[in-house]
Amino acid sequence: MEIQTWTFILVGITFALYIGIAIWARAGSTSEFYVAGGGVHPVANGMATAADWMSAASFISMAGIISFIGYDGGVYLMGWTGGYVLLALCLAPYLRKFGQFTVPDFIGERYYSKTARMVAVFCAIFVSFTYVAGQMRGVGVVFARFLEVDINMGIIIGMGIVFFYAVLGGMKGITYTQVAQFCVLIFAFLVPAIFTSIMITGNPVPQLGLGSTISGSETYVLDKLDGLTTELGFTAYTDGSKSMVDVFFICAALMVGTAGLPHVIIRFFTVPRVKDARISAGWALLFISMLYTTAPSVAAFARVNMIETINGPDMKGVAAEQAPSWVTNWEKTGLVKWEDKNNDGKMFYSGDERNEMNINRDIIVLASPELASLPNWVVALLAAGGLAAALSTAAGLLLVISTSISHDLLKKGFKPNMTDKQELLAARVGAAVAIVGAGYLGINPPGFVAQVVAFSFGLAAASFFPAIILGIFYKKMNKEGAIAGMITGIAFTASYIIYFKFINPAASTPENWWFGISPEGIGTLGMCLNFVVSIVVNKFTAEVPKDVQDMVESIRYPKGAGEAHDH
C-alpha cells in the first residue's frame, strides 16, 4: 500500500481511539475538568505525564536539531531530562501536598494576594501560549507531509482536531487520552529506530548502535559522520561550537523551566495521594528516558542516510530525475527546497557555498524511515506518533490556558459568583481563543519547533521557578517580593527574546548577546534577576503573616493527602 493509505489507516485508528476516550471520560464537573477528579493511578499518570512532556519538540524536533548541529544539540537532551529530576525531587510532592488546582492557585494562596495570582495567571498564559505555538507548528509539519498539503493548511487542520478533543474532555479526558498517546508515540519512535540501527550497524539496540561500527566495515558510525560532515564543509558532528557559558545557561534554563511549567506541574494534582505524586514522577522519568536515550541514535543515523541519499555514494550529487523519494515527497510541503546553482542538474548538500538544498530541521525524524527505505507502514506509524506527541502536549497546554482564564482570572478574580457551568463554558471559550492565536504563531514561527519551545522554558524559569521554590522553602518570602520578582523576570526575558527574534534578528549573534548568552538561555539570567529582586524587595517590605508561615511549614511534612480544593 502507498504511504498515504497507510497513514490514513493508522492515524485514523489512533484518532478514533483518542476521541473515543475523550467522549468516554468527558468532564462533568470542574474537578474532573481541572484535575481528573484526583483519582488517576500513578503508573497511568506517569504515562500521561510522559506524553504531556514529550511534545513535538521532543519527538519531532529534538533529534532534528541534534542531527543538524551534532554535539551542540545535546544541550536540549541534558536540560530537559535533568529538569524532570529537579521537578520530581524538589517540587512535585510539595505542590501536591499544598492541594491547589493550578500554579496561579498556589501563588495566590501562598502569597496571600489577588495581585500575585493575577501576575501568575499572566505568566502562565504567556508561557503556555509560547509553548503551544511550537506544538501547532509540529502538528502542521506532520499533516503537511502526509496529507500532501502546504504546511499552513496542515496547521489549520491540526487546530480543528486539537480543539475538538482537548476542549471536550478537560483533564479527565486528556489524561486517559495521553496514556494511549504515550503508547502510540513511544512505539512509533522506537520501531524505525530499531530497524535503522539493524540496517546500519547490525545492532538492534539503537543506543548501542550509535557507538558501534557500520556493518561490513571497521569504521564507527560517529567517525564516519565526522568525516562526512567535515568533508562537506560542516563542523565536525562530535565537536561543539557554542561557548561553555551559553551551553550552561541554555541547559539551566531548560532544567529550571521544566520545574516551572504549569502544564507539567498540574499533572501531580491528578493522583490520590502525595506519595503517588513521587511514584508517578519516577514512572514518568522512566518512560521519558525511553525516547530521550534513543534520540541521538535516530539523529546520527538519519544524518548519515540524508547525506548519502542526496549526494550519492561518491559524494558528487544525484541527478534531479533520480532524486530520492523523500526529497520529492517533502518538497510538496515547502520544507525541502532545491536550487540548481551550478546548472548541472544534480542535487548537492553541503555546509558551504556549494550547497543547493534547503532542508527544514523539523522534518528529520518524520523523514527518517524514508531516508532508510523502510516499509511504508513504518513511515505511517511515525506520522501517528508525531501527531500523538504534538497533540498530547498541545492539549495539556490548552488546558492550562483555559483554566487560567476561567478558574484563576474569572472565578478567583473578577466573577467569584460564577456557577460550575459558566466556569466550564469560559474555560472552553478560552481554549478556543488560544488555539487561534497559537495557530497564527505556528504559521509565522519565530524559530524551529525546539527553539520556540526553549523560549517558553526560559520564560517559565524566569517567572515561576523562583516564586515556587521560595514559596516552599523560604517561609518569610512575602507577596511584595514574589510579585516584583515575577514581573522583573518575565519582562526581562521576554524583552530579550522579542528583541533578538522579532525586532532585530540580524543582530542575534554571540558578539551582540549579553555575556554571550543566546535567547534560548537568557531565562537563566532572568531567573537570577527574579531571585535577587524578590529577596531585596522582601527585606524592605512587610513581614509574612504568621498563619501563612505556619501553612508553609506544614506542606514540608510528608503527611496528609492534600486533596485539591478551593479556599
Report what the structure shows.
- It is built from 22 helices and 4 strands.
- It is globular, with a radius of gyration of 24 Å.
- A two-stranded antiparallel sheet has the order 1-3.
- It has helices at 3-24, 30-35, 42-53, 56-69, 74-98, 103-110, 114-146, 151-201, 206-209, 221-231, 244-258, 262-265, 274-292, 295-311, 325-331, 364-371, 376-414, 420-443, 449-473, 479-503, 522-539, 546-555; strands spanning 318-319, 336-338, 346-347, 357-359.
- The protein has one domain: Sodium/glucose cotransporter (Up-down Bundle).
- Helices cover 70% and strands 2% of the residues.
- The protein has 567 residues and is mostly helical.
- α7 crosses α8 and α11 (244-258) crosses α21.
- One of its GO terms (molecular function) is symporter activity.
- The chain crosses the membrane at residues 6-25, 77-95, 116-134, 146-167, 179-200, 247-269, 281-302, 377-403, 424-443, 449-474, 481-502, 522-541.
- This is Sodium:solute symporter.
Write the SSE topology.
Elements: H1 3-24, H2 30-35, H3 42-53, H4 56-69, H5 74-98, H6 103-110, H7 114-146, H8 151-201, H9 206-209, H10 221-231, H11 244-258, H12 262-265, H13 274-292, H14 295-311, E1 318-319, H15 325-331, E2 336-338, E3 346-347, E4 357-359, H16 364-371, H17 376-414, H18 420-443, H19 449-473, H20 479-503, H21 522-539, H22 546-555
Antiparallel strand pairs: 1-3, 2-4
